[in-house]
Amino acid sequence: MxxxxxxSPATFVVVLAVYLFYTGSVSEYxxxxxSTVALVVSFLIGHWLVEDELKFFSPRRWFYAVxxxxxxxxIEETKTHIDVAKRVFTLRANPGIVRIPLEVESDxxxxxxxxxxxxxxxxxxxxxxxxxxxxxxHWIDVSTLEDREVKExxxxxxxxxxxxxFD
Length: 167
Fold this sequence. Notes:
The protein has 2 domains: 9-50; 58-166, no CATH class. 62% of the residues lie in helices and 11% in strands. The chain is built from 8 helices and 3 strands; from the N terminus they run αααααβαββαα. A hairpin with a 5-residue loop joins strand 2 and strand 3. The protein is elongated, with a radius of gyration of 19 Å.
């Protein structure tokens, strides 16, 4: 027998937050409308989006997510933008596609790692293996083909936080 669809508080919170963020208002109308939309969405698809509500509401995971966000957007992005700008002006690049072992288990963690790589200047994920254990990444400066070194240069930071947040 198919289980009855259940309400997902985690999905409700995320949908309501996104709704209020994009409306740019916390008026009574927007809170009621956003709550209605969030309620419908959380009943319809929440059970597919969040498997473990307790993991979602874990303060430790949210702490790591906030630290990751600040470090990624203010430190890692800045460093790589400067690196790519230097390469453009000096015409120094050694592009190629490298294979990187992926150890994060959850699908959300894999998406975080792949998006972080793609959003970082000089790298883009071009494929993921069928078993989800390898990423294929176009890298602006292929300085090594050794799996461990490539991983350390490109994904170690992203994967470490993806495990802390999602696994």
